[in-house]
Write a structure and sequence with these properties.
This protein is α/β, with parallel strands linked by helices. It contains 36 helices and 31 strands.
C-alpha cells in the first residue's frame, strides 16, 4: 500500500533540506523554527498541492482537512482563533517557490479581519487606528490579488484621502476608506468582500497557487531558467504587527552587503509599518543602523540572530523581520541574492574565515558573474531611458559616434574618434569596421549571429536584434520607436550587458578585474578574490580551455587570459581586406596556371600568419581549420554588382567577370553547399596551399628554436571517404615539406564534427582522424533544421515565451538532441581510437551550462572567444567539483 501524500506541514515538521516540497521560504521558516529563532508559528501547503491544483483546477481532496487541522494547531499555540470577534488571530498567506522569485507571486496579509473582528483587534491592541489600517490593507490586497480588481481603483480612492502618505490617514479616514474599498469590490465583481475568515483563507491559498502562472512570474522564470513545472508552496503564518506605533516596525537585513560583500549588518528599517511597506516604498525607510538608536535591545537581538543564521547557512543571509512592541520576530530567511562583485568577495572571505572550503567557495561563484566583472560598465548612478532594446550579445559598455559602414568606421577611428558601427546585420566585409569600432549595434540577429560571434571574439560590446530600430544605411540614420532620429556622427551609448542603446554619452567605469586577469596581478580585494577562484578552478578542472583566435593579437591576449592553446583558428578571416583581390583572382582564374599563380601569392601571407600565431602559442596546441565558407562570400554582393553594371555606361570588364563568377557560384542554400571539405576537394590546389603554409610555418618555428604544435582540421566532413581523400592530400604536402626542410613535422590531422551524419558515423570517421572538434553552431543548425540568424530574429521569442525553448539552443547546448549526438560521436570515436582527442569549438564552448555538459560527456577541452576564457576556466572547475562531490550552488 502506498503512503498517503501529505500536503500540509507545520513549521516544526520541516527543514532546509525540504525546499523542493516546502519551497525556499517554507524550508527557511522550518529551519529557523528548528534552531530556535523567534519565528511566528504557522504551516506550509506544499508544492505538490499546487501542482495538483494547476493540473486539475481543484485542490486535492485531502488539503481541506489537513489545512483545518494545521490551523487548529496554530490557534491552540497562539491562544486565539482566526477571525474571532475578540482578540482575533490573523494570518499572512505568502507564496514560496523552490527558487526565489522576489515580487513575482502573491501575498495577502491580515487574513481573518472582518466587520466584527476589526473591533476586537482594536480593543485587544488598544489602537483603533491600527486595526482599521490593517482591515483596509486586507481589503485592498484581497480585492486586487484574489478578486481581480484593478489596483489603480484602490490607489485613486486612497489619493482622495491622503495628506502626504497613508501614514497620515486617521481612524475616521481609514473607516471611510474601508467602506469605499468594499464598494469598489462590489461594483467591480458583483460580490461582497467575504466576511468568513475560513473563506478568506481558502481563497487566498488558491490565489497564490494561481499566481504561479501570472505573466510576470512566467517572464521571470524564463529569464532565470527556472522550470515551469515546479509550482509554489504557500506559507500560512500568524501575523505579527510592525504598525502598532513607534515601538514597532519592520525591516530587511543582510548579514553582509549584497552589493559589495563587505562584512557587517546592512538593510532598511521602517518604524510603525507592515512588511510590504518596505518593499512598496510607501515611505522612505531608514538605514538599519537607526534601529540601534530606536530600540537597542531589538537591534542587539537582530545582530545575534543574523550571526546565527550566517553561521548556520554559511553564507550571506537575507532576513525579513518585524518588531512588535519591542519584541523581535524573524519572518523569513534565504541565502541572499548578490551582485557579481559581492559573490566573489563573500566566497573568498568565508573561505579565509574557515567557514567554507576552497571547493565550496568556487561553487558559489560562476562564469556569468565573472564575465560581468570583466568589462567596462556604465556608472550605476546614471539613469537614462533607452532608445531601444536588443539582444545583449557581447557584454560591456561603450560610447561612440554612430557610423553606418565599415569604411567610415575605419576612417573616423584612425582620426582618433570612438565610433559605434550600426548595421541591419553584419557580414565578413564589415570586419575592419568592427575592429575599428567600440561597439556594434544591429537591428537583426541573435547571440550567435555574425556580429555577436565576431564581437565576442574581439571583446567588443555588441547589441544585436534591436528590431525596434529602423536602420537606413542610405540616409545614414536610424529611427527609434519614440520617433527620435539618430544620424551619422551622433553619439550613443551601447550597453552590451543589458542589451540597450542610449542617446548621448553615459559615464563609464573601467573594469579592474579585466586588467587583473590579463596581468595576473591583484590590485584590490575583488581582483584578489577573482584570481584566487580561478587559481583553484585551474587546480581541480579536467577540461582544458583553449581559444578561438584568428590573429596573433588574439592569440597573445588569449594566452594572457589563461588559454591552453587555440582550439579554432579560422583561416578564412585571413582572406579579407587587401587579400580579397588575390582570392578573387583565384576564383576568376581561367586555367590551372592562373589559379596556381593566385594561390602562390596567398601562400606566403598565410605562412606569415600561421608563424606569428604559432609563436604566440609556442608549446601549446593550435588547431587550424582549413577554409570553410563558400567562395562566393569573398566576392561582391550579387545585387550590388548587377546594379553597378546596369548604371555604368561603360562597364568594367573585371566587374563583368565578377558578376559571371557570382552567377556561376550562386547556390540556393550556400551553407549546405560547396564549402568545407567539399570546397577543398573541388578546387585544385586550395587545400594543398593552406597545408603547405601550415607546414612551412611549423618548420620556420622549429628553425627559430620554438616548439610549434600545429593541428590541421578538415571542416564539414560527412563521410570517412571525404576525410581520407583530404587527409591523403594533406599528408602528401606535409611529406614534401619534410623532405625539403629536413625537419620532422608532427601535425595531427582531424576533423570538425558539425553534421548529424558525421556524429552518427563517427566510428568510421575516427579511423582516419587524430582528433574530433565539435562545431556545435552548425551541428545545432543542421540537427534542428534552423537558420540561426533568421530563427533568432523571427520566431525564437515566441518559442521562448510559449515554453518551447527555455533558452536558445544556439546559446546553451540542447542536451537531448545535439548533446546526444556529441555523446554518440565521442563514444563511437574512442571505441575505434582510444587516444582520440575531442573538443568543442562552437560558441557553446564558452557557455557555463554547456561546459558542465561537455565535462560530463568526457570531452578533453572547450574552445571559446578569448574574453570568455576566464569564465570557461571557472566553469570547468565548478563542473569537476559538481561531478566529484555533488556540491551545488546554494543560491
Amino acid at each position: 500500500m502506498s503512503t498517503p501524500v501529505k500536503y500540509v506541514y507545520r513549521f516544526a515538521e520541516g527543514g532546509r533540506d525540504m525546499a523542493d516540497l516546502l519551497g525556499g521560504k517554507g524550508a527557511g521558516l522550518a529551519e529557523m523554527t528548528r534552531i530556535g529563532l523567534p519565528v511566528p508559528p504557522g504551516f506550509t501547503v506544499t508544492t505538490e498541492a499546487c501542482k495538483v491544483y494547476l493540473k486539475t483546477g481543484e485542490e486535492p481532496p485531502e488539503l481541506g482537512v489537513e489545512a483545518a487541522q494545521a490551523l487548529a494547531g496554530l490557534e491552540q499555540a497562539m491562544g486565539r482563533s482566526l477571525g474571532a470577534a475578540d482578540d482575533p488571530l490573523l494570518v499572512s498567506v505568502r507564496s514560496g517557490a523552490r527558487f526565489s522569485m522576489p515580487g513575482m507571486m502573491d501575498t495577502i496579509l491580515d487574513i481573518g479581519l472582518n466587520d466584527r473582528s476589526v473591533t476586537g483587534l482594536a480593543e485587544a491592541s488598544g489602537q483603533e487606528r491600527f486595526a482599521w489600517d490593517s482591515y483596509r490593507r486586507l481589503i485592498q490586497m484581497f480585492g486586487h490579488t484574489v478578486m481581480g480588481v484593478d489596483g489603480d481603483l484602490f490607489e485613486k480612492a486612497m489619493a482622495g484621502h491622503k495628506k502626504k502618505d497613508d501614514h497620515d490617514l486617521d481612524t475616521d479616514d481609514l473607516k471611510r476608506l474601508t467602506e469605499e474599498f468594499k464598494a469598489i469590490i462590489r461594483e467591480e465583481t458583483g460580490e461582497d468582500f467575504p466576511q468568513d475568515p475560513a473563506v478568506q483563507l481558502s481563497r487566498a491559498i488558491r490565489a497564490v497557487f494561481e499566481s504561479w502562472n501570472t505573466e510576470r512570474a512566467r517572464v521571470y522564470r524564463h529569464r532565470e531558467h527556472i522550470p515551469e513545472d515546479l509550482g509554489t508552496a504557500v506559507n500560512v503564518q500568524a501575523m505579527v504587527f510592525g504598525n502598532l506605533g513607534s515601538d514597532s516596525g519592520t525591516g530587511v537585513a543582510f548579514t553582509r552587503d549584497p552589493a559589495t560583500g563587505e562584512r557587517g549588518r546592512y538593510g532598511d528599517y521602517l518604524p510603525d509599518a507592515q512588511g510590504e511597506d518596505v518593499v512598496a516604498g510607501v515611505r522612505d525607510a531608514l538605514p538599519l543602523s537607526e534601529l540601534g538608536k530606536l530600540d537597542p535591545e531589538a537591534y542587539a537581538d537582530l545582530g545575534r540572530h543574523l550571526h546565527t543564521l550566517e553561521d548556520h547557512y554559511r553564507d550571506l543571509c537575507d532576513v525579513e523581520f518585524t518588531v512588535e512592541r519591542g519584541k523581535l520576530w524573524v519572518l523569513q530567511t534565504r541565502v541572499g541574492k548578490r551582485t557579481a562583485e559581492a559573490a566573489f568577495r563573500i566566497a573568498r572571505d568565508l573561505r579565509e574565515e574557515g567557514t567554507i572550503t576552497a571547493d565550496e567557495a568556487l561553487v558559489r561563484v560562476d562564469g556569468a558573474e565573472l564575465t560581468r566583472l570583466m568589462f567596462p560598465r556604465f556608472d550605476a548612478k546614471a539613469t537614462d531611458r533607452p532608445l531601444a532594446h536588443g539582444v545583449p550579445a557581447s557584454p560591456g559598455a561603450a560610447v561612440g559616434a554612430v557610423v553606418f559602414d565599415s569604411a567610415e568606421a575605419v576612417r573616423r577611428a584612425a582620426a582618433g574618434e570612438h565610433v559605434v558601427l550600426v548595421r541591419r546585420e553584419t557580414t565578413p566585409d564589415d570586419l575592419p569596421g568592427m575592429i575599428a569600432a567600440e561597439a556594434v549595434l544591429t537591428s537583426r540577429g541573435g547571440k550567435t549571429s555574425h556580429a555577436a560571434v565576431v564581437a565576442r571574439g574581439m571583446g567588443k560590446v555588441c547589441v544585436c536584434g534591436a528590431e525596434e530600430l529602423a536602420v537606413d544605411t542610405v540616409a545614414r540614420q536610424f529611427t527609434a520607436p519614440s520617433g527620435a532620429v539618430v544620424r551619422e556622427g551622433d553619439v550613443v551609448s551601447v550597453d552590451g550587458t543589458a542589451g540597450t542603446v542610449h542617446l548621448g554619452a553615459l559615464p563609464l567605469t573601467a573594469s579592474e578585474v579585466g586588467r587583473a586577469l590579463e596581468t595576473a596581478t591583484a590590485s584590490d580585494t575583488l581582483t584578489d578574490a577573482v584570481l584566487g577562484a580561478l587559481a583553484h578552478a585551474d587546480s581541480v578542472r579536467r577540461l582544458e580551455v583553449r581559444a578561438n583566435a584568428d590573429t596573433p593579437e588574439d592569440a597573445v591576449r588569449a594566452r594572457a587570459l589563461g588559454a591552453q592553446g587555440i582550439g579554432l583558428c579560422r583561416t578564412e578571416h585571413m582572406f579579407l581586406g587587401e587579400r580579397r583581390a588575390l582570392v578573387e583572382a583565384m576564383i576568376l582564374a581561367r586555367d590551372d596556371t592562373a589559379r596556381e599563380k593566385a594561390l602562390d601569392a596567398l601562400l606566403p601571407l598565410q605562412r606569415a600568419d600561421f608563424t606569428a600565431i604559432l609563436e604566440a602559442m609556442d608549446g601549446l596546441p593550435v588547431t587550424i581549420r582549413l577554409i570553410d565558407p563558400p567562395l562566393h562570400e569573398f566576392l561582391p554582393d550579387r545585387t550590388e554588382l548587377a546594379v553597378r553594371l546596369a548604371r555604368t555606361e561603360h562597364p568594367d570588364e573585371h566587374d563583368r567577370e565578377l558578376l559571371a563568377a557570382v552567377e556561376r557560384m550562386h547556390e540556393q542554400n550556400p551553407m549546405l553547399g560547396l564549402r568545407g571539405v567539399r570546397l577543398g576537394l573541388a578546387v585544385p590546389g586550395l587545400m594543398a596551399m593552406q597545408v603547405r603554409a601550415i607546414a612551412e610555418a611549423v618548420a620556420q618555428r622549429l628553425r627559430d628554436g620554438g616548439t610549434p604544435r600545429a593541428e590541421v582540421m578538415i571542416p564539414l566532413v560527412d563521410t570517412v571517404e571525404e576525410l581520407r581523400l583530404a587527409r591523403d592530400e594533406a599528408q602528401t604536402v606535409l611529406g614534401e615539406v619534410q623532405r625539403e626542410t629536413g625537419l620532422t613535422l608532427d601535425c595531427p590531422i582531424g576533423t570538425m564534427i558539425e553534421l548529424p551524419r558525421a556524429a552518427l558515423t563517427a566510428g568510421r570517421i575516427a579511423e582516419a582522424a587524430d582528433f574530433f572538434s565539435f562545431g556545435t553552431n552548425d551541428l545545432t543548425q543542421t540537427t534542428w533544421g534552423l537558420s540561426r540568424d533568421d530563427a533568432e530574429a523571427s520566431f525564437f521569442p515566441l518559442y521562448i515565451d510559449k515554453g518551447v525553448f527555455s533558452v536558445s539552443p544556439f546559446e546553451t547546448i540542447d542536451q537531448e538532441g545535439v548533446g546526444r549526438l556529441v555523446e554518440i560521436a565521442v563514444e563511437a570515436g574512442r571505441a575505434v581510437n582510444p587516444r582520440l582527442e575531442t573538443g568543442v569549438c562552437g560558441e557553446h564552448g564558452g557557455d557555463p551550462e554547456s561546459i558542465h555538459f561537455f565535462h560530463r560527456a568526457g570531452l578533453d577541452y572547450v574552445s571559446c572567444s578569448p574574453f570568455r576564457i576566464p569564465a570557461a576556466r571557472l566553469e570547468a572547475g565548478r563542473a569537476a567539483l559538481t561531478e566529484t562531490t555533488g556540491t551545488s550552488d546554494s543560491r
